[in-house]
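Model the whole thing, not chain by chain.
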Amino acid sequence: MRNIKLIIKRELHRVFTDKRAVIALIMPGLIMMVLYSAMGLVAGGTISSANEKVSLVSVYGDGYEVLKQYVDEKTVQVVQLDEFNKEQLTQSVLDGDCALVVNITDYDSESGRIACEFYFDRADEASYTAVSRFSALLEAYNAAVNAPIYDLSVINVNANGNDYASSLVIFMLVPMFIVLFIFASALNICPDSFAGEKERGTLATLMMTPVKRSEVMAGKTISNTILTLIAAVISFGGVVISLLVSGSQMGISGFELNIGGWDYLYILLIIMGAALVAVSLFTMVSVIAGNIKEANSYSMPIYIVGMLLGMLPSFDITTDAVSWYKFLFPIYNLGLSVKQIMLGQLEVYQLLIVIGSSLVFFALICWIASRMFKREGVLFSA
Amino acid sequence: MLDVEKGAKVFGTDQRTYRSDGQVRVCGITKVFKLSKKQMRLEKLDFPTRVAVNGLSFTTYPGEIFGLLGPNGAGKTTTMRIIATLIKPDAGEVFIDGTGLDDDNTIKKDIAFLTSDLKIDPKLTPDYLFDFFSALFEVEDKVREERKYDLFTRFGIDRFAHVKVADLSQGMRQKLSIVLALVHDPKVIVFDEPTNGLDITVARTVTDYLKELAEQGKNVIISTHIMSLVQKLCTRVGIIIEGKMVECGMVSDLLSANPGKDLEDIFFDVFSKYSTAEGGK
């Protein structure tokens, strides 16, 4: 244990006394924050739904007759209501029976002024699309009558759900960026720990001391993990700041990303799990490779596959319940769990599966790497 | 007492080559490396293995400098690495003061291994590295500070103790390698090509220090193909050809047995006699 501590101390000393290494450590998180926030700003107000289905809208109120001519029947199907039962209609939106309920609260036939309320589900893509389409209808009416037109109140009926449009962008991008930067951080740290030391001839020098190979392996893996976790925490900071920035910028006015304290903790834990997976994989590659170039060339396919795995769940934009076993697959479960957080649907047991599978994967790969490191040819060959 | 296979001709009156009272006893070690297809192609070999060392035996004693002589690829470095516990032999054994290499963590406390293959971390300072290696060898703090002062002063490293290795000159790095190998005051110093790549002044510092270590009772084993160095430095010498020890004995005996010839002439005579490439045995 004493030797492991000495090696960890040395590894950390090497990094923290080297300005370039420190910058390389914090850079991914900073890039993530800046890049992602910028993307959030650019994406603001430009989100359009991919839903091509006709939006079913229930409308109550006298003023609908003047709006009727602006309805595009290819995209919006209107059901006129004779009475307004708020609870019942709200439930129908939540159940998905109706995408949007529009209550025209006031209509002035002289000025053409209309006041109305939208009842919609922010977490539902179809509902979100219906809001967009009915808003366009009101805009068209506004342009036609050339008058100050309507008062619009947009009321979300799903208090627990996140804004779908914001979530859509975020849950597609967050896993990708997390994998990108965690893997980039691990890739920056791990190849140097074994392959770099072999290339420089400093690992053999270390092996001349009375330190066991298992101690070197443990010391280096732990220090790689510490450094990657530091990078992960910085990246997490980047995610938080960018979510705060982009969450208020994405979607239409009044829609905000509904992520609370627990969600941030979940994201932090998931990021740490991903960091462990990345460290184990790149450490193993570093053990096998004879030099940094070789390690990087072996690592690149892992990096690309990791990115794709992380993004894969984001392409499935359905909000159906997810089977528990899907949370078992490392990296894929990162994308999946972040998506579930964005949709407000991640269960604690799913998070525990993600963390557990990451730990098991980390232990398994480290064990394999340790076995490999004990082979003589790792240090010296013919 | 261990009987070892005697493979080499022992010249002169020296009878110490295979005695069992030596400090370092190398007993019939064999090492076979597996070759990759690329290595087989490059070396034009038909078999996927290469015998680096083949039944090699010799013994060395405290207070002497023993030279392993041989051409490139003869097996010198492999032998040194086996003694230094970095690799294990496929057959045979090595004992240091009677302890086998299986207990390599105990053995390492008695050995220093120096080679141009072993480098020092460029991001760290000599002071940090000395403390780090001392800690791994469990050197007491007071002893460590005294030793650091002595070695740093002797090799002129004291002025650069807090400069990163990357910013040191090549010669200073070589000197630091030697210093770091000696942090634990080892009994046996195994030095592969001690003056390889050194300029004349640093080489002189190193050879003088090796002599001094031998005078202090240390057991110094060097491998080289520089005959003048062996003639100047070594008490005894062993000549390795194609992984086998072909001749072994006192340098003075070797020279007196071949009047009018220097060590280089003698080496070429031995080489042509034993090398299969040269039509030898």
